Amino acid sequence: MKATVVREFTGPITVEDRPLPEPAAHQVRVRIEASGLCHTDIHAARGDWPVRPALPFVPGHEGVGIVDAVGASVRCVQVGDRVALPWLADACGHCDQCVLGWETLCLTQHNTGYSVDGSHAEYALAHGDYVVPVPDGVDPLDAAPLTCAGVTTYKTVKLAGARPGTRVLVSGIGGLGHLALQYARLAGAETVGVDVTDDKLALARELGVDHVVDARTEDVAARLRALGGADAAIAVAVAVAVSNESFRAAYGSLRRGGTLVLVALPTDGRLELPVFETVLNGTKVVGSIVGMRQDLAEVFRLHALGRTRVIRESRRLEDINAAVEEVLAGKVSARLVFDLR
Ligand code: NAD
Ligand code: ZN
Ligand code: ZN
């Protein structure tokens, strides 16, 4: 089978022929139809984060495909089912976090395309209990971005407390941000989209966002103060050197009692908080990491009902390095998806 492989953090991703993997008793093998390129794959391939993946590895955690082999102890999935392979490859299932339904905080979890081989390949193995069924009627090319960008921002919008009468700012209208804006609108919030490219600002308008702010030319915090401040600011912007600035702007946009939700994971990301203002304003700062299997099931259901739009373009798996450069140059409409059908 064809697979993309990260062999070093400084070189290009290679495309290799590998033997077809055999599922263990608890695993399924999935023939990948579509696999979305998340900015996290770029962080992974470059070793951007404090905990680096062990080399070599296959990146990709927005995989969607058809189960073509099942291990002996797999009960809930059958050959022929269409499933999604999210970032949460598996968790222990019995620690307090898992039992309370916070499997994404499990200390012994594995992560697809990071600590276990991922979906930027023709086939991938996955834990039978942690793949999520993709309902009929959801295009695999849409399902792929929903598997990380969708589930992450759906969970984030819940954590942000978006509801009618609230104002929610989304900083960074890329793969994650364009879905965050849609979930905030579905929750009934007034929405503000912030970005630094004309195309992304135009996309926000097309998605029906209430206010659009160009961070290149406008003071984001001042614009929001004039509106009355944000009840929640969702920080999903990522770009070399400017990310911390976008975090500061998101923090500065909050009204009293507001919540800053941190989602983007830039290299060496740091946020310095003024203690006095944070205390007197009753500001909350929350980290948001992906979402649970149930969140992804809800994301797919909303999409099947026609409530969300996935803005994406297809690429060939062989062109993964060119695709990475496109994302870094900010030239992508929202999400690139490798089409393996
Ligand atoms: P992306 O490249 O598709 O989007 C980033 C967007 O930020 C782009 O539209 C870009 O124009 C915009 N941007 C850059 N600088 C800006 C600025 N100063 N102000 C406003 N916007 C700016 O990336 P993505 O795939 O959406 O991922 C975003 C980040 O989220 C990455 O760091 C990724 O690793 C992280 N992520 C986190 C989680 C989680 O669970 N916390 C899950 C998935 C991805
Ligand atoms: Zn991701
Ligand atoms: Zn656990």
Q: In what range is the share of β-strand residues?
A: 25-35%
Termini separation comes to 14 Å
The assigned structural class equals alpha/beta
- Total DSSP E strands: 17
> Hetero groups bound?
nicotinamide-adenine-dinucleotide, zinc ion
Low-confidence segments, ≥5 residues, pLDDT <50?
A: none
Briefly note the CATH topology name of the largest domain.
Answer: Quinone Oxidoreductase, Chain A, domain 1
Tell me, what is the CATH class of the largest domain? Answer: Alpha Beta
Polypeptide structure, described:
The chain is an alpha/beta fold and 341 residues long. The chain folds into two domains: 161 residues, Alpha-Beta Complex (Quinone Oxidoreductase, Chain A, domain 1); 138 residues, NAD(P)-binding Rossmann-like Domain (Rossmann fold, 3-Layer(aba) Sandwich). The protein is built from ten helices and 17 strands. The strands form four sheets. Strands 3, 4, 5, 8, 9, 16 and 17 form a seven-stranded mixed sheet that branches. α6 runs parallel beside α7. The longest helix has 20 residues. 50% of the residues are buried. The mean pLDDT is 97. The site of nicotinamide-adenine-dinucleotide has 36 residues, from α1, α3, β11 and α7.
